[in-house]
Amino acid sequence: MSSYADRLRALRDQLAQDGLDGFVVPLTDEHMSEYVGEYAQRLAWLTGFQGSAGSAVVLAEKAAIFTDGRYTIQVRQQVSASEWEYVGVPATSIAAWLEAHAPQGGRIGYDPWLHTRAWVEEVRKALAERGAELVAVQRNPIDSVWGDRPLPSDALLSVQDDEAAGKSSAAKRAEIAEWLGERRADAVVLSALDSIAWAFNIRGGDVSHTPVALAYAIVHADGTGDLFVEANKVPDAVRQHLGNAIRIQDRAAFAPALGALSGKRVATDPERAVSAIFDALDAGGAKILSVRDPVVLAKAIKNPAEIAGHQAAQARDGAAMVRFLRWFEETAPGGELTELSAAAKLQAFREETGLLKDLSFETISATGPNGALPHYKVTEESNLKIEPGQLYLIDSGGQYADGTTDITRVMPVGEPTAEMRDRFTRVLKGHIAIDTAIFPDGTVGAQLDSFARRPLWEVGLDFGHGVGHGVGAYLSVHEGPQRIAQPNYPGGQSLEPLRAGMMLSNEPGYYKAGEFGIRIENLVLIVDREIPGAEQRMLGFETLTFVPIERTLIEPALLAPGELAWLDAYHARVLTLIGPLLEGGAREWLEKKCAPIH
């Protein structure tokens, strides 16, 4: 089909054939993943929306696309206003919209492999107010009309060795077994792809930029497990690594295996397991314990090997970033660079390390007005030339066997304006406020969020995304359960207690629509802080990312003495850690960028 309008018409025709009055299209897969394989990109195929979070509802005469504040501008650029209504979340939910717009007595379809049970219950209740019903489909109607839909990846699994993982899979499964014993449970279902990768010390290539494999797992109270994955994707080295304690079964055998757990007490995560998993367990007569997957917190609290690996990856990645920033500063004024060519050059510098496995996400390479789109994705159609007078924002990261990186820097092309310097410095003040925060053990991310916003709030400004997300250990660049964000952030992750050993990003920003964007992002590790006279355990952040912050964008008069001291100390550490990895002109450039600012 040549246009998105054609695709929408084809879907409506299919819904009519299926006896449905509407259908809900989320941007996720059977594992409730944030980043999904090409085969699961149904929302993008239907609407043209390229963001990483969103949903849509299609009715016979009306269609709506739901996005949060990060995509307010982007969704309007990519999705036709003549076909789609734009709806902001969390101000409005799919349930609330359907309660207002679903036809009386209508049948609204959903794919039970793409939604949580809580979502199903919420929407079913809302539809009942209209005398309508929510109907589980056996086959997703988009798959019926998507003629050239890609097949799921056939990438081979690989072993994450114990040295990098810091703990063997057997030891991890023994801890899961102990957790099950404490709850008098017989088994736990693992459906989140990064949980499976971490628990079994395996990695895969089924999702772009995230080293996971499409699989399900059941871990039993004796520490053994069943791994449901396509058999031809499991090489002998992985089979040997998994050993006799892990039974490898075809991925298609997963649902029947759930149905065979009759009478068993089975732990299942209501946030990460889809409705179809609960339905199969119910139908088979299992006793369901709705609790969080035990891997989630264990994975988030990094062990010493994971921390050391991440530090090594950060130094290597930081040197590549410095080489890129120097090249950019020297090359951009010529006016020949584009967003795509700049992103390709940074990737080349990372590849020169010889250890890059992949990028950790699609590089956000954005100049001028595109920088004002926080999650902008450059394409051949949107690609802009980088011209004098603009700010260039690059948010990028690398996947290395020892760590996952994520960094954002902003560079001016030519002389920045006074407004640009003011906004950049206020974002920097917020970044420093997070980096230097000291807080009691048990503090939640929502309590810290305003630290980063206050310098902007003071002049009537703000930004529409969270301040920080968790990061995996050669896993997902966005990892829960921790997050620094406002209390109403979708998913409730900002209410997760922060614990020593967790990694987070620190990335406040500012975006002036149609003109420029600013974001300063480092990764940080939560550590204990010894406070003389403290009457409780106190925590703080240890910086992990070391790349200079562009000094020509800083207005020193806006920084307090303590903030200036932080900046000079940070740059001194950059020079100490990254300087030995550079030579010649790159080393000289770094020395100038890291000189004291006052």
UniProtKB/TrEMBL annotation:
<feature type="domain" description="Peptidase M24 C-terminal">
    <location>
        <begin position="538"/>
        <end position="597"/>
    </location>
</feature>
<dbReference type="InterPro" id="IPR033740">
    <property type="entry name" value="Pept_M24B"/>
</dbReference>
<dbReference type="Pfam" id="PF16189">
    <property type="entry name" value="Creatinase_N_2"/>
</dbReference>
<protein>
    <submittedName>
        <fullName>Xaa-Pro aminopeptidase</fullName>
        <ecNumber>3.4.11.9</ecNumber>
    </submittedName>
</protein>
<keyword id="KW-0645">Protease</keyword>
<dbReference type="InterPro" id="IPR032416">
    <property type="entry name" value="Peptidase_M24_C"/>
</dbReference>
<dbReference type="Pfam" id="PF01321">
    <property type="entry name" value="Creatinase_N"/>
</dbReference>
<dbReference type="Pfam" id="PF16188">
    <property type="entry name" value="Peptidase_M24_C"/>
</dbReference>
<dbReference type="InterPro" id="IPR029149">
    <property type="entry name" value="Creatin/AminoP/Spt16_N"/>
</dbReference>
<dbReference type="InterPro" id="IPR050422">
    <property type="entry name" value="X-Pro_aminopeptidase_P"/>
</dbReference>
<feature type="domain" description="Creatinase N-terminal">
    <location>
        <begin position="7"/>
        <end position="138"/>
    </location>
</feature>
<dbReference type="InterPro" id="IPR036005">
    <property type="entry name" value="Creatinase/aminopeptidase-like"/>
</dbReference>
<dbReference type="Pfam" id="PF00557">
    <property type="entry name" value="Peptidase_M24"/>
</dbReference>
<keyword id="KW-0378">Hydrolase</keyword>
<keyword id="KW-0031">Aminopeptidase</keyword>
<dbReference type="GO" id="GO:0046872">
    <property type="term" value="F:metal ion binding"/>
</dbReference>
<feature type="domain" description="Peptidase M24">
    <location>
        <begin position="310"/>
        <end position="527"/>
    </location>
</feature>
<dbReference type="GO" id="GO:0070006">
    <property type="term" value="F:metalloaminopeptidase activity"/>
</dbReference>
<keyword id="KW-0479">Metal-binding</keyword>
<dbReference type="GO" id="GO:0005737">
    <property type="term" value="C:cytoplasm"/>
</dbReference>
<comment type="similarity">
    <text>Belongs to the peptidase M24B family.</text>
</comment>
<dbReference type="InterPro" id="IPR000587">
    <property type="entry name" value="Creatinase_N"/>
</dbReference>
<dbReference type="InterPro" id="IPR000994">
    <property type="entry name" value="Pept_M24"/>
</dbReference>
